[in-house]
Amino acid sequence: MECPMCRRVKENGQESFTVSGWQMARDQDGPETLWLGESRGQAQDSERTIGIFSRARGNDFVTGWLVCVAGPERGRDYRLHHGYNNLGRSSGQDIYVSGDPGISREGHCSVVYDPAHSQFLLVPLKGNLVYRNEEMLEHPVRIENGDRFRAGSSIFELVVFCREGHTWEEK
Fold first, then answer.
1. Is 87 exposed, middle or buried (0-12, 13-18, 19+ CB in 10 A)?
2. What gap in Å lies between CA 167 and CA 21, rounded to an integer?
3. Number of other CB atoms surrounding residue 86 within 10 Å
């Protein structure tokens, strides 16, 4: 049975739904979230990389937060995880900022946590304007705890959890 609002389907103890064109499933006994592939009506690509996020692997643990310090969603915080955290107005984005029309719907920019070097990077995407210290970014730049950047009319501050000597290493 499919919910008309969120397109979630529950069958045989498994819940599936579509996020940004990808069919996802959640099973009680398996990984928390499993990317199954593109949803109906889109071309299938057997060469596509498949990401699996599970508590056992640890790559869904929090690495830091963004806090909106100015703009329509002032005071709201956003969890950051390993790898790319895409910022946009679409609900399928990792950092979902719905109230700022100056931010692209999908992939305005990305905050990346690089576990190999215990660092965060700010990456402008798709030619969108992103400013750090009022300078427009043209390339990825390293950002540190307390650094601020602007996308649309919103200003975000990075609060770091994972850093040198303080990471989610395999135990």
1. buried
2. 32
3. 21
Give CA separation, 137 vs 57, 122, 129, 132, in Å: 33, 9, 7, 7
**How does pLDDT run across 45-96, given as a tens digit for each residue?**
556 655 544 444 446 789 999 999 999 999 999 999 999 999 999 999 999 9
How crowded is the C-beta side of 88, counted as CA atoms within 13 Å? 21
Strands, E, within 60-144: which ranges?
64-70, 77-80, 83-88, 95-96, 109-114, 119-124, 130-132, 135-136, 141-143
Nearest CA to 132 out of 20, 164, 59, 121 is that of 121
Tell me how far the alpha carbon of residue 66 is from its chain's centroid.
11
